[in-house]
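User: As part of a screening pipeline, I want to sanity-check one entry by hand. Below is the sequence and the SMILES for flavin-adenine dinucleotide. Please return the complex as structure tokens so I can compare it with the automated output.
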Amino acid sequence: MIERSRASVAILGAGLTGVGTALELARNGIPVTLVDQDECPMNRASLRNEGKIHLGLIYANDRTLNTARVQLQGALRFRSILARWIGPRADRLRRSTPFMYLVANDSVLPVDRLAGHYEAVQSMYAGFLDDDPALDYLGDRPDRLWERGSLAHVEKFVRTDRFVGSFRTAEVAIDPAELSALLRQAIAVSPLIRFLPGRRVAGVDRSGGRLRVEGESSSGAWTIEADQVVNALWENRLGVDKTAGLVATPGWLHRLKYRVIARLPEKLRRAPSVTMVIGRYGDVVIRPDGTAYLSWYPAGLRGWTDELAPPASWNGPCRGELPEEEARSIAFEILAGIDAWYPGIGMSQPLLVDAGAIVAYGCTDVDDASSALHDRSRVGVTSVEGYHSVDPGKLTTAPLFAEAAAARVLGAWTTA
Ligand SMILES: Cc1cc2nc3c(=O)[nH]c(=O)nc-3n(C[C@H](O)[C@H](O)[C@H](O)COP(=O)(O)OP(=O)(O)OC[C@H]3O[C@@H](n4cnc5c(N)ncnc54)[C@H](O)[C@@H]3O)c2cc1C
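Assistant: Here is the complex for your manual check:
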């Protein structure tokens, strides 16, 4: 038998985008039904990522500055939007040590081009702060976002022969697990949010002037008739959009990227977090609890497809389930890749290995200067007659676009 229900607003996908949209609508008195394939909200990319709140520095190869602009807008509103959803805990999210940007000797861009981009971001940032006193970066308004560093200052930590320059930045990462726990709690206590777990969305049917969400669960088929639908399905968003008659411009790419959370050796617990730029490199994020997020692109990138949706085989690692032997081998390769330039990282003790899908436009990889992957500005909300599809781009910008999606729903609600 088919399980049938009704909803004013059905939100598909309970990552930061869907959860944020639900909380924002609930704040405005709108009841919503939030649907996810997993048993709890915040179980996929929004949990299994690096947690960096991007200031736009990494997208130095987008000369238009459009990507930097959207990242800055997301970063400078990240805390205040979250505070509406989770209260003052948004002001006290644990942070990593600040990122150093280390310029690889085979970087796609030379040091001076990077410095030029960072200064352009600095000017944009100063302009934003002047225009709006309510903006902040995780509660602070630092004067400078970057300074030129000296390799001599980092030789205590890294092998400087691998690099041609370094920059100190104000950028930090939060811990996505802490954020996820707070958001799950907010969903659980909201009387206006009905969370339906364990339901895989197959499509959205528009026939008869209504929106009907259809899918499968362990107990069979289900449908939800809704006045409005928000699609926040991340790597399955485009496939479901197609069923609703919304066809994406070709050129998208799904990549499967693994990460390791590891316990650091004592001597590295106050070391700098590092982003190695620009190419197929990685990041080390040093957290205050003695753990680190570790990524090394050549070892961690294990899936690449331009199909409308990734294969089902990505599902396991994207919800944190992978065979122990495979997890051990991936952790070994990622730690070894980083240890070659950040000695001591190889002595870390892996605690967790999982993966997430990265959705972006591009055909070639990040070590190609002309790759569209350097431009992440083609993101946001697309709405057609009560159906709203949200590409948040990044964790950094997910609250911003969740707020925008909720505004679209509210707009249609008040004119209905
Ligand atoms: C390894 C990695 C590192 C990253 N690092 C950063 C970073 O440092 N900073 C940054 O800003 N961004 C980062 N990102 C990007 C960031 O994680 C994503 O942009 C963001 O989390 C997307 O949020 P979302 O809510 O749209 O997706 P998700 O959190 O994936 O939520 C989508 C939800 O939809 C559900 N779902 C999907 N398909 C279906 C279906 N058919 N039926 C039912 N439910 C379904 C999923 O279960 C999931 O709960 C990183 C991503 C990865 C993978």
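Points to compare against the pipeline: The first strand starts at residue 3 and ends at 12. The mean pLDDT is 97.
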